[in-house]
Design brief:
five-stranded parallel sheet; transcription regulation; transcription; DNA-binding; 10 helices; 246 residues; Two-component response regulator
Length: 246
């Protein structure tokens, strides 16, 4: 018996991908507000913090896709903030861009040795910052492709689960009114969708449903096809928007 989905199966309408979330940490109000506005105009979701302590708290609440941080800050500077991030497995691979007034060669070397991914000296062209951010996110997206192979990057995995949890808490502005679109799901597909919406990954779903990881991968792939989505985050967003899961 074929596992392929018939071509006449109803397809879901495509939805825009979830905008990348950035964390901006800088103690200069004017620069912080200007950079936030420019990044938001470039279709990013931007959380802001005026110091590293608040930045760390925001990291715990909403895991970003990338961090932009000043170096010269009171109490905890950018190097210490980066060291704190790199010491936590959830943030070890999180891309980090340093913004600083220090532009000497030795300072840049120190930044890269500390583990930053890019370094911009103030004043800088905001277009250059956006280009750097997009480049780093594209590289990270390639790593995320491993998630569906059963060996996900821990940072990417944590980010997906954080987004799913925020969706379930109603924090992303999703319209939960069911649409007239009807998606026919089998009982097993529905069970897999419900568990994906709870933030479970393939191995956990397989254990819960007493089946193989390979079978779960097939069901998740079918759900992507039926809903016209390309990632677990988009799938859960679509399911919530159209009343497909509780």
């Amino acid at each position: 018996m074929s596992n392929q989905i018939p071509e006449n199966e109803p397809q879901g309408e495509e939805i825009p991908p979830v905008s990348p979330r950035l964390l901006l940490v800088d103690d200069e109000p004017g620069l912080r507000e200007a950079v936030q506005a420019y990044l938001e105009d470039s279709n990013f979701i931007v959380d802001v913090a005026e110091n590293a302590k608040l930045g760390w708290e925001l990291l715990q609440q909403n895991l970003p896709d990338l961090v932009i941080t000043d170096i010269m800050m009171p109490e905890v500077d950018g190097y210490q903030f980066l060291e704190q991030m790199r010491s936590d497995p959830k943030f070890k691979a999180l891309p980090v861009v340093f913004l600083t007034a220090k532009g000497m060669k030795g300072d840049r070397i120190q930044g890269y040795q500390a583990g930053c991914d890019a370094y911009l000296s103030k004043p800088f062209d905001p277009e250059e910052l956006v280009a750097i951010v997009k480049n780093l996110l594209e590289r990270r997206a390639a790593t995320r492709q491993e998630a569906e192979d059963g060996t996900p990057d821990i940072t990417a995995l944590a980010g997906q689960i954080a987004r799913i949890e925020n969706m379930l808490k109603g924090k992303t502005g999703i319209n939960l009114s069911p649409s007239p679109i009807k998606i026919d799901l089998t009982p097993r597909e529905q069970s897999v969708l419900d568990l994906v919406a709870q933030g479970l990954m393939n191995k956990e779903i397989a254990s819960r449903l007493e089946t193989s990881v390979r079978n779960v991968e097939k069901y998740v792939s079918r759900l992507f096809t039926k809903t016209g989505t390309n990632s677990r985050t988009e799938l859960v967003r679509y399911a919530l928007e159209h009343g497909l899961t509780k």
